Model the fold of this input.
Amino acid sequence: MFELKKLIATLLMPLPALLIIGVIGLLVLWFTRKKKLASGIIAFSFLGLFAVSFQPVSTSLLRPLEQQYPAFVGLI
Done:
């Protein structure tokens, strides 16, 4: 059960989730005749990857977490 929980948590992270969506789009493109649907899924995947990796978007997503927890200053 622990392994299943870790697997699901990993797949729900942005990068693996968007890559899986892109692969699903490619499978739809290759194995069905729904070219518009496949193109939309692939475009959503690429735009999502771009948005998550774009610094203003990623900074605004991380800001609440960085403000919520204090910085750890370790002793040397």
Observations:
- The longest helix spans residues 35-53.
- The radius of gyration is 18 Å.
- The mean pLDDT is 90.
